[in-house]
Design brief:
The chain is mainly beta and 217 residues long. It contains 1 helix and 10 strands. The protein has one domain.
C-alpha cells in the first residue's frame, strides 16, 4: 500500500511539472542564445543556386550572386516553418554577392577566386528560386565578409566551392520565447559546397553543402 502511494505521488509530481519541463525543452531550441556556429561541428546545411554575371568596367572578370536557404541550423529545433521542406517554408535564407578576382586554367579545370559579402535572413516571406531577391527579403540577422574558391570541371560541369566567412555583425531574433543570435562578431566558419553548372542560365548552377565553425579572427 505504501509503495502504491509513493508511485501515485511521483506520477502526480510529474504531471504537475509537465508544462515546466515542456518549456525547458522548447528553450533548448536556442543553445546558450547563440546557435549555429560551434567550432569543429557541422553548423549549417545549405541548398542554393548561383547566377554568374558578366564583366563590367569596374569588375572585368564578372560578379556572382549565390542564394538559397538552410536546411539545418545547429541549436535550432527545425529550419522550416512547415511542409514541404523547401525554400517556401525555410526559416533562414542567405544571399552572397562576390566579385571575381582571379581565374586560372589548369587543363579542364577553372580555379576561380572571389571576394565579397554574405547576408543571412530570418525569412518572413515565401522565398522562390524564380526570384533570387526573395532570399534577401527577410530580416537581416547576420552579415559577414567572404573569401571564396571555386574549382570547375569544364568537362563534366561539376564544381566544388570552399568559402571562409568572417562575421561582421549579428542581430537577435526570436525562436519561440527565446532570443538567439547566429554566431558572434569575429567568428569564422568554412563552407564546403558541391554543385553542377546549368545551361542555359539562369541559374548558372545548383549546389548544396555544409559549414563548420573554425574559431575567431
Amino acid at each position: 500500500m505504501r509503495t502504491t502511494r509513493i508511485a501515485l505521488a511521483w506520477l502526480l509530481a510529474l504531471l504537475l511539472a509537465w508544462p515546466f519541463t515542456a518549456s525547458l525543452a522548447a528553450a533548448r531550441d536556442c543553445d546558450d542564445g547563440r546557435p549555429g556556429i560551434p567550432e569543429d561541428q557541422v553548423a549549417l546545411e545549405y541548398v542554393g543556386q548561383v547566377t554568374n554575371l558578366p564583366g563590367t568596367t569596374d569588375h572585368p572578370l564578372g560578379t556572382s550572386q549565390q542564394y538559397g536557404y538552410f536546411t539545418f541550423v545547429r541549436g535550432i529545433d527545425t529550419a522550416f516553418s512547415g511542409s514541404p521542406a523547401n525554400e517556401t517554408t525555410a526559416r533562414f535564407t542567405f544571399f552572397t554577392d562576390v566579385v571575381t578576382m582571379r581565374v586560372i586554367s589548369n587543363g579542364p579545370l577553372r580555379i576561380i577566386s572571389r571576394e565579397g559579402d554574405t547576408a543571412v535572413y530570418l525569412d518572413t516571406s515565401l522565398a522562390s528560386f524564380s526570384n533570387p531577391d526573395s532570399f534577401r527579403a527577410g530580416t537581416l540577422i547576420q552579415a559577414s565578409t567572404i573569401q571564396q574558391q571555386v574549382v570547375v570541371d569544364t568537362l563534366t560541369g561539376l564544381f566544388t566551392v570552399v568559402n571562409v566567412n568572417t562575421i561582421t555583425s549579428t542581430d537577435k531574433f526570436a525562436v519561440g520565447e527565446e532570443e538567439c543570435e547566429l554566431g558572434q562578431r569575429g567568428g569564422m566558419y568554412r563552407t564546403t559546397l558541391t554543385g553542377h553548372l546549368n545551361s542555359p542560365a539562369p541559374p548558372s548552377g545548383h549546389f548544396g553543402g555544409y559549414a563548420v565553425g573554425i574559431g575567431r579572427k
